[in-house]
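If your schedule permits, I should be very grateful for your opinion on a structural question. I have a record of one protein: its chain in single-letter code and its fold written as C-alpha cells. Kindly check, if you would, that the fold set down in the C-alpha cells agrees with what the sequence suggests. I remain grateful for any guidance, and I place the record below:

***
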Amino acid sequence: MAVVALAGCTAGDGSTADGVSGEAGYVQPGPDESWVVPGPDASEPPAGQVMTDPERDALSTFALDIDTGSYTRFRDAALNGMSIDPSEVRTEEFVNYFAQDYATPQTGLDVSIDAAVLPFRPEHRLVRVGISSAAVTDEARADTDLVLVVDCSGSMSEAGKMETTKAALRTLVSSLRATGRVAMVCYSTEARVVLEPTPVSERDGVLAAVEELSPQESTNAAAGLALGYDLAMSMRTEGRMTRVVLISDGVANVGETDPDGILSRISTQAKTGINLVSVGVGITTYDDHLLEQLADQGDGWHVYIDSDAEAERVFGTGLTGSLVVAATDARAQVEFDPAQVSGYRLLGYENRAVADEDFRNDAIDGGEVFAGHATTALYEVALREGSSAEPSDLPFVRATVRYLDDAGRAVERTGTLSGADVATSLGEASPRLRQDLVVAVLTDRLVGGPWSSLVSDSDLRREAKALTGVLDGDPDVTQLVQLVDRVAT
C-alpha cells in the first residue's frame, strides 16, 4: 500500500505536496481494496458508510439540522475520562458546533459549496455544502415569552445536574430583555407550575424561583411538556415569540417515555409556532435519543450544557439568534453528475433523511433554522477515472436549499461547484474546511467508520494542531486540538 500524509501526498523527500513536512500516517488503499468497513454482516456495511452510485441515485435529500448537543456531550465525556456510545455520535452536530466562513444572506437561507482533494484518497473529494441564515439584531427581535420546563426528578441530583441546570437558567434569565415574560414548570412524578407568567423586569422574583428548584421523585417528561405547552398557549400574544425550553437529562420513566408518544400529546401546539429547545445536562444517566428527537419533532433544536461557559455561549451571547426562526421546513437536495462522479456518501444526517421525491412536498416536515446559525453537510465524493486528471468547468455537484419564509412562501436557492474549483491540497483549502475534515475524521474514528483504517493517530493530531496556525485565536479550535490529543492515542 502507498502511504500519504494528511496535509498532502508525501513526496520523495518526505515533504508533502503542499510543502508541509510530516510523517506518513494515512494508508491509501490499492485499486482492488474496498474502502467500506463491513459491519457484523459483511454483506451489509453500516448505514452511512456506503457510497451511492449517482447513475442509480444522483440525489441526496435531507432536512436541515442546527443541533450541537452530540459534540458537547462528547466533550464532557472526554474531559471526564469517559466515552459516549457510538450511536450518540452525529457528525453534523460535531461540525455545526464550530464557526464556519459562509457569507451571511440578507434574508432567509443561502447555500455555498467548496471542496478539497482528500489527502488519504486522492481520487476522492471532501465536498462541503454550507447553508447559512440571515442574522437578526436584538433590537429587531420581537419580545419573547418563554416557558421553562425543568426536570426535577431524582436523577437530577446526580453528577451536579441540578446545579448545572440552575446556572444555565440564571444565564438565560439574565440575558432576556425586561419586556419579555417567563413562566416555569417543574416536573417529577407529576408536573406543576412553579412560576406563573412573570415579566422579566421582575428578574429577582424569577431568579428566586430558579433557586427553589430541587430534585424530587420519578420522571414524567410527558406531563411536564404537556403542562408547559398549555402554559405557552395561554401566553401567546400577537407580535411576540413564544418558546418552550426543556432542561433535562432525558430520562423518562413515568407515563409516556418515547419522543413519539410525548410529542403526540402536544403535536398541535408544537406546530403552531411554539418551538421547543431541548437542553441536555448530565454525563451520567442520560437519554440522548429522547432529547434529540424531541427537539427535531418539536421544530426546535437540541444543545447540551456541560459548563457555565457553554451556558453563556447558548443562552447569553447566542440567545438572539437562538429564538428567531429564519426558515421553516428547510431541507437540502444535493445532486451529483453521473458523468463525473462514480460515488458519494453523506457524512451524518442519518436520521434526517427525506425521500428525494418529497423535496418540494411542503407537507413533509423539514428542519427549522434559527437566525444567525449555519449548518454544514460534508460528502465524500469519488470521481470517475480521468475526471481528476482533467478537472471540468462543468459542475459536478449542485446543492439546492428549500424553505418556507415568514409568509409561508417556498423559497429555493442553489449553488454549484466544478472540478476546476476544487482545492488540490489542504494547504489551498479554506481553513474552516480543514477544520471540518479534522472533525469528520474524529467522528469517523469514534464510530469505527471507513476512514479508521486509513488514518493514523499521529496524522490526526498533527492536522488538528495545524489548525491553531490557520485559525489562531479560536478557543473552540484550541479545545478541539486538546480533545483530539485525548482520544487519538
Remarks:
- Confidence is low (pLDDT under 50) at residues 1-5, 7-43.
- The longest strand covers residues 121-133.
- Residues 144-321 form a domain with the Rossmann fold fold (CATH 3.40.50.410).
